[in-house]
Amino acid sequence: MAQQIGTGIELIARRKDGSEFPIEIMLSPLESAEGILVTAAIRDISVRRAAEKHLGQMEGRYRGLLEAAPDAMVVVNQGGEIVLLNVQAEKQFGYRRDELVGQKVKNIIPEGFAERLIADALRSVEDALAQQIGTGIELIARRKNGSEFPIELMLSPLESAEGILVTAAVRDITARKQAEAYLLNKVEELNRSNEELGQFAYVVSHDLQEPLRMVASYTQLLSRRYKGQLDSDADEFISFAVDGASRMQRLIQNLLAYSRVGTKGKDLLDTSSEEALQQALINLRGAIKDSGALVTHDPLPAVLADEMQLIQLFQNLVGNAIKYQSSGVPRVHVSASKNGGKKWIFSVQDNGLGIDSQYFEKIFGMFQRLHKREEFAGTGIGLAICKKIVERHGGSISVQSRPGHGSTFRFALAGTERKP
Amino acid sequence: MPKEVLLVEDSPGDVRLTKEAFRDANSSIHLHVASDGVEAMAFLRRERAHARAPRPDLILLDLNLPKMDGREVLANIKEDASLKTIPTVILTTSEAEADILKSYQLQANCYLSKPALLDAFESLVKSINDFWLTKAKLPQQRKGG
Q1: Which residues of B touch A209 (CB under 8 A)?
Q2: Crossing angle (nearest 10°) for helices A174-226 and A232-263
Q3: Contact status of B139 with chain A (Cβ, < 8 Å)
Q4: Predicted pLDDT at A256
Q5: B-contacting residues of A 132-161, CB under 8 Å?
Q6: Residue B144: is its pLDDT beyond 60?
Q7: Using one digit for the tens of pLDDT, what is the confidence trace for A285-317?
Q8: Is the pLDDT of residue B131 over 60?
Q9: What is the rounded average pLDDT of the residues A10-26?
Q10: What digits encode the pLDDT tens for the residues A360-404?
């Protein structure tokens, strides 16, 4: 008697009409003058039994499916209680099946899952099905031993007699998370090292200028004062030294300009590209005058740009267009058109030497040159600077050309609301 | 009267280059050299070995110097009632915005950065001679002062 008191005993009861129904009976002792009496609280559990039977059938149907799944699978009712799980789930969470069935899912997924079920309970089956309840939710799961691990949860609704059940596929994403963290760490490291390298290049170029200024100045002085006074070998040696030093000065100035694109860039502001081009042409007036070049342009729009860099971009492109010419008058035309979206595509078109298509990519690289120094002087940094400037503005630069038929350089810049 | 110029510069290569450039621009100039800030102040205050030093008509001052740097020298000159009227021109390789601002805040008369190319440097020295030592009217210096 004492053993059974307080616990629900499931029995079969019989009505007057002979029909039977399942009951749960709770017994408690009652002392009276006649001795100890027993109070029996009797509850009809036929509804619960029906559900259990249904569940049993369902379990049979889904078990095969669940066990075949590579992920841990947990079926949960709207009350947030675990109804069914597969062997992967047992392994994953470190519980035996009977330790989890009937338990709150919060025990194994403390946050983010049960809350979602409550929200979903307010929706119709159709809604829930239509929305797939939610795909790829990342949460934290807890094992029996208390240790936690990251999971990705895929939910899908399961219609049943009791309402919507939810099947949760639980994937342990520890490895993926570690890989992501590792990757993020590497990206940060790479950015840092890139930045350091940029700073390094800047400092080195800057500090090299000083001793180089001495070498260049004094070899020039030597050449000026002693040319013709030593023998012809000496004159030749000195002229090589002067030439080498001044080339190195140009190289370092261009390297500094290249590294300044990244380190000394200003914010991108509403800028008149037409004024930027005008300034570039003023800076190029010597080359334009010497070559007799005809530089024309369409009305150009306002764009989002670092003005100094935009000037440099035009200056390098128009400067190249004038420089790489065989004979005749260089003609350069600058235009811009909208590409449907918000971007403006600028074109700098020339009638110069043109470029073989195999070099279309290569010319934008550092120190890449297509001509001998005797033909055209240059450091091979100009177009690399252009590329860096355009990329800093979120665009890209490309060339279309045919040898002997001129080149067209195109780059995209974001426009502003202002009218051109 | 030959003009007296004090060049405060620690790099011998730059000193010689400036001398050469001045020789081409105006050979009558007396160019005096102090190779650090302490020596520059001693020259201007006629201390120790510089007791007979002339009062310069122009000071060309580099910013990065040993012992006492150019900014400190500039501050000392401009705080000294008898020295502050001497035009002091900063001549340095620095193009840093902060150096330019600081120099003018300390009352530098002009800030010039040394060009990388020889021709440009020579032309700059010629401009200094034409402007500060030829065209600009400078206060009459007191006798012996």
Answers
A1: 93, 116
A2: 150
A3: no
A4: 84
A5: none
A6: no
A7: 988 898 888 999 999 888 888 998 999 999 999
A8: yes
A9: 89
A10: 888 888 777 777 766 777 778 889 999 999 998 888 898 998 888
How does residue A39 score in pLDDT terms, banded at 50, 70 and 90? Answer: confident
Q: Cα–Cα distance between A154 and A135 in angstroms, integer?
A: 5
The answer to whether A408 faces chain B, any CB pair under 8 Å, is: no
**Minimal-distance CA residue of chain A relative to B122:** A217
> What per-residue confidence (pLDDT) applies to A27?
83
Q: Which residues of B touch A214 (CB under 8 A)?
A: 11, 13-14, 17
What is the ipTM, given to two decimal places?
A: 0.81
Res. A122 pLDDT band, cuts 50 70 90: low
Helical pair A382-392 and A232-263, crossing angle rounded to 10 deg:
10
Angle CA A18–A23–A24, to nearest 5: 160
- What string of H, E and C letters represents the secondary structure of chain A? CCCCCCCEEEEEEECCCCCEEEEEEEEEEEEECCEEEEEEEEEECHHHHHHHHHHHHHHHHHHHHHHHCCCEEEEECCCCEEEEECHHHHHHHCCCHHHHCCCEHHHCCCCCCHHHHHHHHCCCHHHHHHHCCCCCEEEEEECCCCCEEEEEEEEEEEEECCEEEEEEEEEECHHHHHHHHHHHHHHHHHHHHHHHHHHHHHHHHHHHHHHHHHHHHHHHHHHHHHCCCCCHHHHHHHHHHHHHHHHHHHHHHHHHHHHHHHHCCCCCEEEEHHHHHHHHHHHCHHHHHHHCCEEEECCCCEEEECHHHHHHHHHHHHHHHHHCCCCCCCEEEEEEEECCCCEEEEEEEECCCCCCHHHCCHHHCCCCCCCCCCCCCCCCCHHHHHHHHHHHCCCCEEEEECCCCCEEEEEEEEECCCCC
Q: Are A239 and A223 in contact (CB under 8 A)?
A: yes
CA angle in degrees (0–180, nearest 5) for B84-B85-B90: 70
Count of CB atoms within 10 A of residue A11's CB?
A: 11
Given an 8 Å threshold on Cβ–Cβ distance, is B117 in contact with A246? yes
A220 to chain B, minimum CA–CA distance in Å? 8
Q: Both tokens of residue A10?
A: 């499931």
Retrieve residue A331's tokens: 């003609």
d(CA B119, CA B17): 11
* Nearest Cα residue in chain B from A214: B13
Q: Which of B93, B117, B118 sits opposite A210 (nearest CB)?
A: B93
Query: Chain centroid to CA A306: how far?
Result: 25
pLDDT tens digits, A167-214? 888 999 999 999 999 999 999 999 888 888 878 877 887 788 888 999
In angstroms, the CA A5 to CA A7 distance is 6
